[in-house]
UniProtKB/TrEMBL annotation:
<feature type="domain" description="ABC transporter">
    <location>
        <begin position="4"/>
        <end position="273"/>
    </location>
</feature>
<dbReference type="GO" id="GO:0005524">
    <property type="term" value="F:ATP binding"/>
</dbReference>
<dbReference type="InterPro" id="IPR003593">
    <property type="entry name" value="AAA+_ATPase"/>
</dbReference>
<dbReference type="GO" id="GO:0016887">
    <property type="term" value="F:ATP hydrolysis activity"/>
</dbReference>
<keyword id="KW-0813">Transport</keyword>
<dbReference type="InterPro" id="IPR003439">
    <property type="entry name" value="ABC_transporter-like_ATP-bd"/>
</dbReference>
<feature type="compositionally biased region" description="Polar residues">
    <location>
        <begin position="363"/>
        <end position="373"/>
    </location>
</feature>
<keyword id="KW-1278">Translocase</keyword>
<dbReference type="InterPro" id="IPR027417">
    <property type="entry name" value="P-loop_NTPase"/>
</dbReference>
<dbReference type="Pfam" id="PF08352">
    <property type="entry name" value="oligo_HPY"/>
</dbReference>
<dbReference type="InterPro" id="IPR017871">
    <property type="entry name" value="ABC_transporter-like_CS"/>
</dbReference>
<protein>
    <recommendedName>
        <fullName>Nickel import system ATP-binding protein NikD</fullName>
        <ecNumber>7.2.2.11</ecNumber>
    </recommendedName>
</protein>
<dbReference type="GO" id="GO:0015413">
    <property type="term" value="F:ABC-type nickel transporter activity"/>
</dbReference>
<keyword id="KW-0406">Ion transport</keyword>
<comment type="subunit">
    <text>The complex is composed of two ATP-binding proteins (NikD and NikE), two transmembrane proteins (NikB and NikC) and a solute-binding protein (NikA).</text>
</comment>
<dbReference type="Pfam" id="PF00005">
    <property type="entry name" value="ABC_tran"/>
</dbReference>
<keyword id="KW-0067">ATP-binding</keyword>
Length: 373
């Protein structure tokens, strides 16, 4: 079942003395129930803006979409009160910066217990006065169901000694433990989807690996879907069932993780794959894509990647087409519009030089020169 179904999302930030910023422009995103879906792309590609659009947390931005459905219901047709119920109960969120996302003056057990009470799983008042009394006077009784559930959730996300940790304040915990607390808190509302924006980026690799394992396990065990935002394709390879690749506000390619890694179709995806150790060609150094992504206000027409693409040709100035590579695997790239496979993209040029040729593309207009970034 498709949980989240977004078609042609555009998000623009009005700017007072300057051009509006078209941060996201043309994003399709489908998240299936129970899957881990990777949203990947370089910095500034619009991953976080897309994530926040799902929670409707984009104050002042203009958001349009052909479709923006969660479980078949239009999220943008909901009232703010209905949306508050969606946040936390249906869709949980985990951010990169756990220290600023958690309340510094409440124990983590108290914070999770509050989420549990609001979700209504336990027969304890979550009214404002009751919460204020707990916060400033009594605290949650350690025998209360909401507290027991908070401790259970801490245990579920792999925190040793959860009783002890529940009575700690966020600053007393390590970054990895705080990230687990955020995941426990997101689970407190028993959501069907967790949006996790770079949840492990600030952590060292061993802690990152164990938290990703944990997410994988939670996804399988609780049947919760996770939209995992990352700029790290290695993380995607390890963790995700499917993946959507973004570049400069648009989706370039999406498909199952195995389809995308074994048979990448978009030159941008191919370029990204060359920059991760597991995927680099046997002969070679890791190569990053020369140049950098354009600012949203300076994006070229048509394919936003064409200035950096070694295979770009005249048609790339036209609006992005959709090429179905395989069942469930789509690339938005002009190279395929004539129905033939363009073969290898010349990403193997070294020293920042691209020779700009594509095998099998002899009948095309000569690709444009790519400048060294
Ligand atoms: N409130 C805002 N006002 C104006 N522009 C914004 C705003 N928020 C984001 N942007 C712009 O939107 C674009 C996309 O930003 P976003 O944070 O979604 O990128 P990202 O893919 O999450 O990058 P990163 O990997 O660095 O987190 C960027 O160019 C950014 O400058
Ligand atoms: Ni981001």
């Amino acid at each position: 079942m498709t949980l989240l179904d977004i078609e042609d999302l555009a998000v623009t930030f009005p700017v007072e003395d300057g051009p509006d910023v078209p941060a996201v422009d043309g994003v399709d995103l489908q998240v299936e129930a129970g899957e881990i879906h990777g949203l990947v792309g370089e910095s500034g590609s619009g991953k976080s803006v897309t994530a926040r659009s799902i929670m409707r947390l984009l104050d002042g931005a203009e958001v349009t979409a052909d479709r923006f459905a969660y479980r078949g219901e239009d999220l943008y047709a909901k009232s703010e009160a209905e949306m508050r119920a969606v946040r936390g109960d249906d869709i949980g969120m985990v951010f990169q910066d756990s220290l600023s996302a958690l309340n510094p003056v409440m124990t983590v057990g108290e914070q999770i217990a509050e989420v549990v009470r609001h979700h209504g799983d336990v027969d304890e008042s979550a009214g404002l006065l009751s919460e204020l009394r707990r916060k400033y006077v009594t605290g949650t009784r350690k025998t209360a169901s909401s507290w027991r559930r908070a401790v259970d959730l801490l245990e579920t996300v792999g925190i040793p000694d959860p009783e002890e940790v529940a009575t700690s304040y966020p600053h007393q915990l390590s970054g990895g433990q705080r990230q687990r607390v955020m995941i426990a808190s997101a689970l407190g509302g028993d959501p069907s989807l967790i949006v996790a924006d770079e949840p492990t980026t600030a952590l060292d690799v061993t802690v990152e690996a164990s938290i990703l394992d944990e997410l994988r396990r939670l996804c399988d065990e609780f049947d919760v879907a996770i939209l995992l935002i990352t700029h790290d394709l290695g993380v995607v390879a390890e963790t995700c069932d499917r993946v959507t690749v973004m570049y400069s506000g648009s989706v370039m390619e999406h498909g199952r993780t195995d389809q995308l890694f074994e048979n990448p179709a978009h030159p941008y995806t191919k370029g990204l794959l060359r920059s991760i150790p597991e995927q680099a060609p046997p002969d070679g150094e890791l190569t990053t894509i020369p140049g950098s992504a354009p600012e949203p206000t300076e994006r070229p027409t048509g394919c936003p990647f064409r200035d950096r693409c070694p295979a770009a040709f005249d048609a790339c100035a036209d609006p992005l087409p959709e090429h179905v590579v395989d069942d469930g695997h789509v690339a938005r790239c002009h190279l395929y519009t004539e129905g033939d496979d363009p073969g290898e993209v010349a990403w193997d040029a070294r020293d920042g030089e691209t020779n700009g040729t594509v095998d099998g593309a002899t009948d095309r207009t000569t690709p444009t020169e790519v400048t060294d970034g």
